[in-house]
Amino acid sequence: MGTRNLTMVIDQQGEKKVAQYGQWDGYPSGVGLGVLNFLKNKDLFDTFKSNLSKVRFLDAEGVDKGFIDDYNKNAPEWSNDPDNRTEEQKKWFETYCTRDLAEEVLTNIANSTDEEIILLDREETATGDGWVEYSYVINLKENTLGVYTHIDQEPMKVYQLDALPEDDVFVSELEGVEED
């Protein structure tokens, strides 16, 4: 059973740049700590911020229509179907799209040498019906990390990026809403 989560990044202009869905371990003691420790790694975080200018969301009906049509034609519909994706298509999916990534997409963006980083916008997965249990929003415009149980409601807690807590404090402040 998974604990569904969303890792989101808002850039310094207030534009959403990352909205990555994660299927597993979304609790503050899981994905939450992953996000927190990513933010504490100054070199990695600085590289990530400079790579944000290369990030954009997939435009499946516009400029990326051919790419996504070809991808969908080659991808297996079921686990026992043949996988005819190219190595480039598989790499894109594993690096930027799979539900298994969660906060690891941040590190992948930071380490990317791609000229353009194309992501899926998965924010709609997190809104409304409570489908996503935790959301972690890095807001570079506000210089904050917000932790939400429902992204369209008030955050559980907001941290300043230049005053992030220690791991044990982070988990203890948020554990009251964790459910087994």
Order of helices and strands: EEHHEHHHEHEEEH
Fraction of helical residues = 25-40%
Overall residue-averaged pLDDT value: 92
Tertiary shape = globular
Alpha-carbon Rg, integer = 17 Å
- Output the strand order for the largest sheet: 2-1-5-6-7
Number of domain modules: 1
Q: What about the largest sheet?
A: 5 strands, mixed
Notes on the protein architecture:
With 180 residues, the chain is α/β, with parallel strands linked by helices. The protein is built from 7 helices and 7 strands; from the N terminus they run ββααβαααβαβββα. It has one domain. Helix content is 35%, strand content 19%.
Q: What layout of secondary structure does this protein have?
A:
Blueprint: E1 5-10, E2 16-22, H1 28-40, H2 42-51, E3 55-57, H3 65-74, H4 87-96, H5 104-111, E4 117-119, H6 123-126, E5 134-139, E6 144-148, E7 157-160, H7 167-174
Parallel strand pairs: 1-5, 3-4
Antiparallel strand pairs: 1-2, 5-6, 6-7
In short:
This protein is 35% helix and 19% strand.
Keywords for this structure?
single chain; 7 helices; 180 residues; globular
